[in-house]
Design a protein that fits this description.
Blueprint lengths: L1 H8 L6 H22 L11 H8 L1 H33 L3 H12 L6 H14 L6 H25 L3 H9 L4 H30 L2 H6 L7 H10 L3 H35 L1
Helix pairs in contact: 2-12, 3-12, 4-7, 4-9, 7-9, 8-9, 9-12, 11-12
Length: 266
């Protein structure tokens, strides 16, 4: 029993459950994705044909490019709608801003499929056709809070002494926003872009429901290949998604560091 008491009294031992969780829920699935994507489905030999199939398959490549386009449109709309909302909330009184933030985040407490079905019902009630427009509307509706909250959180923690210094030096409201507020809020913007752009590419349920399965996104292609037993090809497509996430995260960190340095200089 001594080793058991020692195990529970040692502070580092409390990290074991988190380590096991990461090992089985994060690391192991990633290893399996890499294993299946670089192996042949029949012989089990090491191969690159799964990636060659993606490059040569015009339908999958076009779906991938189309998904990026939808993700870009959704992300831009979320920035256009979310940044002013976050700016207004961060400059409101404390009580009012907290209530408004809760109202924006409230839809996130509901399952995304339920929200999407409600969007379908709304379009049916208004007698609007389901299609690309409904898809973009549903994407913005579902992911807008993921853009607002990081920007709002960053602005709330912003050092207002920079703003006061700029005002004391004679800078007008627009100059203060352009030279101080916007650069300092860029970490929140980049976090919002990451939280909106990548889920938009990989989602499939929203596209299926809001387009009556007439428009496929990249996530739908991955799901279809896994459902029909093409694990290796599906894993290769998933690995492509992971590489994109890694590249975006790398550039996101670089932009956040640059924005922080600019804010420090100002």
């Amino acid at each position: 029993m001594k080793w058991l008491n020692k195990l529970f009294t040692k502070r580092s031992s409390w990290s074991i459950p988190y380590f096991l969780f990461l090992l089985f829920v994060v690391v192991l699935p990633l290893v399996l994705i890499c294993y299946y994507s670089f192996h042949d489905g029949t012989t089990g030999d090491f191969t690159l044909k799964n990636f060659e199939k993606f490059v040569s398959n015009h339908e999958a490549a076009n779906t991938f490019i189309y998904s990026i386009g939808i993700a870009l449109i959704t992300t831009i709309l979320c920035i256009v709608l979310g940044y002013p909302a976050a700016y207004i909330l961060s400059n409101s009184s404390l009580c009012r801003s907290k209530i408004m933030v809760i109202l924006f985040i409230l839809p996130m407490w509901i399952n995304i499929l339920v929200r999407t079905l409600a969007t379908v019902a709304l379009f049916d009630f208004m007698r609007l056709p389901l299609g690309e427009g409904a898809l973009i509307f549903g994407m913005v509706y579902n992911f807008l809070p993921f853009m607002i909250y990081p920007i709002y959180n960053t602005m709330q923690k912003m050092d207002h002494s920079y703003i006061e210094a700029a005002q004391d030096l004679g800078a007008g409201p627009f100059t203060v926003f352009r030279k101080v507020v916007f650069p300092l809020s860029m970490p929140g913007v980049m976090s919002g872009i990451m939280m909106v752009f990548m889920p938009t590419i990989s989602t499939f349920a929203i596209a299926e429901l809001l387009t009556m399965n007439n428009i496929k996104l990249f996530g739908t292609t991955i799901q279809e290949n896994i459902n029909i037993g093409m694990w290796n090809y599906g894993a290769a497509l998933s690995l492509i998604m992971l590489v994109i996430i890694f590249v975006m995260e790398f550039f996101s960190d670089s932009d956040e560091d640059r924005a922080s340095n600019e804010g420090g200089i100002i």
